[in-house]
Amino acid sequence: MAGETLGVIGTGRMGGPMAGRLLDAGYSLVIYDTQSEAMQPLLRRGAQQAKSPADVASRAEIVLASLPTPDIVKAVALGADGISSGNRARIVVDLSTTGPGAAKLVAEGLKARGMTLVDAPVSGGIKGAINGTLAVMVSCPQGTYDTVQPILKNFGKLFYTGDKPGVAQTAKLANNLMAAAALVITSEAVAMGVKGGVNAKVLIDIINASSGRNSASEDKFPRAVLPGTFDFGFATGLSYKDVRLCVDEAEAMGVPMVCGAVVRQMLAITNAKYGAASDFTSIAKVVEEWAGVQMRG
Description:
Blueprint (H helix, E strand, L loop, with lengths): L4 E5 L5 H10 L3 E5 L3 H9 L3 E2 L3 H5 L4 E4 L4 H9 L12 E4 L5 H12 L4 E4 L2 E2 L1 H7 L2 E6 L2 H11 L3 E7 L4 H29 L4 H9 L6 H11 L10 H18 L4 H17 L8 H9 L6
């Protein structure tokens, strides 16, 4: 309920805008991030700064975390001075993409401390975080879902996937694999078109009016590839991490990932060539270099 104090750990590119929406909704926040500059916009708006994840979890009953990797999530949740060391938190909402294995491990560790994990990865990028149009996939016990629903609806559309931790992560990994795959195949198709004499923008318009349209042709190409800015807002290293997690989890389940393995390789190449901090639309730059063309328009 608005007015209560929530904890937020991780106030970066996604966590910052989501925390801002909670302030807009009337919640009080106690926040923590290892990068003090990431907290400044929220502190200026009245959020309180905590000393550690444990401090956050000693000052709020519900703690939300938005963190970049599974290892960081595990350390923040269960490590020294982590959330599990707090004495007040009862519900921990993890908005990160960690994969089902890490979600189950964190859920078990928190349960031993009397805390319930809400596995709640989000999709929709920085723009979605700012505008409150994210897809929020949620798995947790039904009663806990009823408690956190009013909070999470500030971020976008909720999809309840059941009561087992890790199920929402599986849904998120499936989505992120497809987003990366769309970028790879659109890059290859448009590079071929340009080399064959078709204007890149015209070809994207054709694809978007035809059966080949996808999230890359409708959004990422017009926004970040055709203008040559490569600044969509999602890091190559994070996309590579998500696709690696997805392929590994699928193989462990006995699900073939023939196309997924190729997408993982393309991200490995992009990550090696342009670095983890580069935008994942840099996949198109790799294809441009191989094809000897530029996809602009």
